[in-house]
Amino acid sequence: MSSPFGSAPVSGLVTVDRAVSELRRGLDVVVRDDDGHVLRVAAAEYATPDRMAGFAAPGARLLLTNRRAGTLKLRPLVGDPVALPLAGPLDAATIASLADPTADLDLPLRGPFSVLRRAPQAAEFAAVKLMKLARLLPAALAVDAAAADDGLLAVPAAEITAYDLAAARGLRIVSDARVPLADAEQSRIIGFRPPDGGIEHLAILIGDPPRHLPVLGRLHSECFTGDLLGSLKCDCGEQLRGAIRAIAEAGGGVLLYLAQEGRGIGLMNKLKAYRLQDQGFDTVEANERLGFDPDERVFQPAAEMLRLLGFDAVRLLTNNPEKVAGLTASGINVVERVPHAFPANNHNEFYLATKRAKSGHLL
Ligand SMILES: Nc1nc2c(ncn2[C@@H]2O[C@H](COP(=O)(O)OP(=O)(O)OP(=O)(O)O)[C@@H](O)[C@H]2O)c(=O)[nH]1
Ligand SMILES: [Zn+2]
């Protein structure tokens, strides 16, 4: 199979994309790795007695990320993910509650749980990565399966681990329209789509910046609550509009609007993180309790979009050194970091302080 845009092979991407959609609907898929492991897999957050029927065989297990297992004080943490045999106290309700930390403080007495003392399999790692790609909680039910299991969709582990990079490399421009903005009348919105029709990103091109000079640019990760609703919990809305103003005032540049809601964990999971923040955890701890890394974003899509727009060097509006490092590692020359901070309010003061203290932000 080839992409409608060119000759890049897309069958692996499409299989992963289909698996994502099956899992989100509560269906099982099969993940197989190059070492011969074949797993039937389901999203742990959807566990119900009915859905557990396929996971009754010996060897069935719950896969949790090392971070989630650490929060639950499971030992030993032999690798990532950690596997808990589905036995004894692991009924459907317990499984769902081990996946979802929002009720952790109400359920202090679960367990004790045992953990398999062996290194994780590539298929197990890929199964959890698939949950992240599906923007579900990163916890999976798994059981050893036959190669062709009940006509379930089978997806190679290698395609799952290669997905982010392959999707980024295959991005193509699919639309380009003039859209005058209140703060930047000379704007165009350019749409990018990966060859499997997966996650799309946008660029706002302001003016007509010369391609042979470093472009004034901003990578903005989507934030529904801040960008659209004016949430005071973060600084995203101000950073978005502030960047558009700054770029227009400078005579032109580009803002990439990246579909990486909640630093890549998705809106539903970000709302769960907000709930944990109301229990007293900071933005980094909340991500970790959910089982995610503090920042799950990748930078290859942004680098590829800049290249497709004709830019290979950028003066980057950011306070986040990880963005500078990430873009640089993806082949873009970041010639300057341009600070991009706005005054705090009562609600986001602690959020900004945490970014400074824990995420290395230069605010
Ligand atoms: N998971 C999670 N994501 C958040 C939270 N608050 C904001 N976000 C997301 O964070 C992203 C914005 O990233 P920031 O860390 O604020 O800033 P940055 O983009 O890394 O760095 P700057 O370039 O300096 O702004 C958006 O996708 C928001 O949805 C939170 O508490 N938890
Ligand atoms: Zn935000």
Automatic annotation (TrEMBL):
Known pathway: Cofactor biosynthesis; riboflavin biosynthesis; 5-amino-6-(D-ribitylamino)uracil from GTP: step 1/4
Active site positions: D295 (proton acceptor), R297 (nucleophile)
Top-level division of the source organism's lineage: Bacteria
Reaction equations catalysed: GTP + 4 H2O = 2,5-diamino-6-hydroxy-4-(5-phosphoribosylamino)-pyrimidine + formate + 2 phosphate + 3 H(+)
GO term, biological process aspect, one: riboflavin biosynthetic process
Keyword Zinc included in the entry's annotation: yes
Keyword Lyase: no
Protein residues bound to Zn(2+): C223, C234, C236
PANTHER family: 3,4-DIHYDROXY-2-BUTANONE 4-PHOSPHATE SYNTHASE, GTP CYCLOHYDROLASE II-RELATED
Protein name: GTP cyclohydrolase-2
Species of the source: Zavarzinia compransoris
Lineage of origin: Bacteria, Pseudomonadati, Pseudomonadota, Alphaproteobacteria, Rhodospirillales
